[in-house]
Amino acid sequence: MRRAFLLALILQVMIFNYLFSQEISNPSNNPIIEFINNEKIRIRAKEAVERYQHPEKYTNKNNSNIETYQFQSSNDEIIVSQRKIPESEIFSAINPKNPNNIVISPIKQDMGHQTDLVTCPVYYTFDGGKTWGLSDFITKPYTENISLMGGGDPVLVFDNDGNLYFTWINLYVTFNNSKPDSIKAAIFWAKSSDGGKTFQFNENNVFDKIFSFVYSENPQITQMLDKQWMACDRSNSKWQNTLYLSCLHLNQSGFLPQLQLRIYRKTPNSDTFESKPAVINTKNIFVVQFGSIDVDRKGYVHYVFYGTNGMTQELYHSVSKDGGLTFSDPKKISQLIGSMRQLSGTENVIGISAQRMYPSPYMAVDKGTDVNSDNIYVTWTANGISSKLDKGLDIYFSRSTDGGETWANPIVVNQDNLTGVHNFYSNIAVNDSGVIAITYYDRRNYVDADPQQALTDLYLSTSFDGGLTFNDIKVNSESSMFGKIGTLNNEFGIGEYNSVLIDDDYIYPVWADGRTNDGNINVYMAKIKIDKTQTSIDEIKPISNYLNINSISPNPAKEQINIEYNSEFQHNVLIEIIDILGNSIINFDNQIANVGTNQILINTNTLANGTYFVKISYNNIYTIKQFKIIK
Fold it and tell me: Which end of the chain is more exposed for a tag (fewer CB within 10 A), N or C?
């Protein structure tokens, strides 16, 4: 028996070493360490020092008429974005006390800033997305004499009282008398009591400890926290309003790298997160990644993550029934293949760097009271379940109706059923009526196009029957050329996820949009009315006040409509009426838009009964709003 155990152990170690090509003498050769370095560090330590010591070489080199980079008002933010400062990998949250209060944070990479290369700006709205503000909070330690090397991963969650919690990662070099002395990495958190306008933050708002390393031009990140996710208990249980943060702990201090899944919690009567986390038992799983956390109506905390034992890749589920103090041993949800860079069978997706190709599983729990109450839903990216299907990446979905004890056979969400087409990076939300919304990037419309352009759209799939069936709609009106999507942010591109929110009436997809096709990436949000008969886009606009349709009246209309819209600058715009199929059927080119409120009257006598859209655009900035004709 002992011999069999030893043989099995030796075999596991051999598999692990073979799989990851481990070179113990140099931890950076381990793909897990390499993954952390490539993913989180946007610039090398040597360049971080150079930026700090010689700021004149870097200060806004792409924006010579701006003296110093800073968070500006939302009116100016779109100009900064047009000046090649991409924003991507977006997280968003909606306030349960006020659904019109939506908060969004992307990773912003300003290659022209001397020390604050990677920050996570916070956009907020109190009118459901009609207008946006920009918090002046900067996601960096208050410590003086630092240069940010990287980080990111903005995560937001509202508690039941409408307080907003925000976490992010900073990697940075510290200086002593202008000489670099250490490299630090940590997950920080801040709190906002005014819907994202301002934040309370101090140096003690950090999870675990700040991992410090002696300065080196080629740092080896041997331990850090990564991939955090947050959830709030909105149940009526005794743990109501408890916050949970899950994350991955990497520790490379022994023969093999150790990857640990941790869950920190903040109880309602505490001002901070508890220092001692719960740890999920993953001793038989060599590599873990991408944890997603949510809470059901009983206050049970559910956690879904990716893992591999060195032979197969799986998704796992674990649950806590004691308020996050302990978690069950993981149970397998599904096998998968083809979307983890460190393992075989990974697809080559134009516009997604090798370091960014992951299954990215995300979970949502139905907290309503209907027949699907407490169902757990999971979505992820793969090109097969047990074998590679050689048809491109697809969006997979599984559900559990018994609290995670058993899981349904996975289905493919995207309805294109095409070979050689990639669908990737899904996200999921479910409202209290049981409506499921899944968003993802999709290339189905460009099968015969130049593959190097990699024209990509954002799609939304909805289900009204607990995930048994799905219907698709395309969200964006202009595609992004992913062949150029990462040229301005060191091939980071769109990052690893988009975001989707949902309330009783609307679905809000939020995504990184590169339609300018010059490497720049901006943030867009759509507002989609929930309708079981026909889910359709109600409104879509950039996260700025550059252009905004205030109203279309009357709506429904018969003979004419009056369009009122705002513009922040004077320029010529294109105004179009678009039918439900996306055809431009009426257009007015070179319409002069003045600063402030503008109006235009359009005759609709020739339009048949149905749903239409008004689109107002300038260059690659546009805003869309729906109206109906009923005669």
Answer: N
